[in-house]
Specification:
- The protein is α/β, with parallel strands linked by helices.
- It is 38% helix and 21% strand.
């Protein structure tokens, strides 16, 4: 099992405009169709952001309900198994709005952004109070937090929250490199962060934009637990060629197999990450 690699597909994200990437899924039906395509290609985790009727990023619960219901229905029809991972990202509204969809939808995983970051010209805010609330909510609902790390200080924040009882080890960390204001998408960043992880942790990696391919290769060389790919992080297959989520999953799997890694099914990913399968 230790050789199995988890492929996570991040389908939409909060920032990419549809006109820059026509293949970006934004409606519930598009998100569901991309989920089916990515799972058939080999992804075991689907990370979901949602857009409102104006195609703008939103954290309103009703949009998550519509998207997740569409995904679950499509997967049932195709007899496919997938781990749904919902964002809890900073956006318009209160802490309660960022948490409300978790109770309604009951995903198996959710993002846990482990600190505040000056993301370019914006503030990506994740206050200590919010992180405590989110930690308690994941424990209450038995949701596996994916601890997103954009900056090395966030590892320190996560360790503090583990010690305080808000996060339950063993934890799963997701390195996201190449964000303006965060750690560069280089092997030096990865080498700096890996020794800081608590013993027994699992970890996945992604690079934004031009860092996407280099960080996949660095992660595979370092023995990562998973690779994160998708149009949230990178819209190009090659220079000037707009990708689809399915193509990005297929390329990651091709790279993994060249390094001798086998690809984890959703059931195997649950075993690796310590997730109890949700039933609906």
């Amino acid at each position: 099992m230790c050789n199995k690699l988890i492929i996570s597909a991040c389908l939409t994200g909060a920032m990419t405009p549809k006109d820059a990437c026509p293949s970006l899924p934004v409606t519930p039906e598009e998100i569901a169709a991309d989920t089916v395509a990515c799972v058939k290609a080999g992804a075991s985790v689907i990370h979901i952001h949602v857009r409102n009727d104006q195609c703008r990023f939103t954290m309103e619960t009703r949009y998550f309900v519509d998207a997740v219901n569409a995904v679950r229905d499509a997967c049932r029809r195709e007899n496919l198994d997938v781990i749904i991972n919902l964002t809890t990202s900073n956006g318009p509204g209160s802490d309660e709005i960022r948490l409300a969809h978790l109770e309604q939808v009951r995903p198996e995983m959710c993002s846990y952004d482990a600190g505040t970051l000056n993301w370019g010209e914006e503030i990506f805010e994740n206050s200590p109070g919010f992180l405590k609330k989110l930690g308690r909510k994941t424990q209450e609902l038995d949701i596996k937090p994916e601890i997103e790390i954009f900056d090395a200080s966030m590892i320190g924040n996560a360790i503090r929250l583990i010690k305080a009882g808000y996060l339950t080890p063993p934890c799963h960390f997701q390195f996201i490199t190449g964000v303006p204001g965060g750690l560069d998408g280089t092997i030096d960043s990865l080498n700096f962060m890996l020794p800081k992880l608590p013993e027994g942790s699992t970890w996945s990696i992604s690079g934004i934009g031009k860092a996407h391919m280099p960080m996949m290769l660095a992660g595979l060389a370092a023995g990562c637990t998973g690779l994160r790919v998708g149009l949230e992080d990178n819209i190009y297959l090659t220079k000037g060629q707009i990708a689809t989520n399915e193509q990005l999953v297929a390329r990651a799997i091709q790279l993994a197999r060249l390094t001798g890694r086998e690809i984890a099914t959703a059931a195997e990913a649950r075993q690796i990450l310590g997730i109890r399968r949700a039933t609906f």
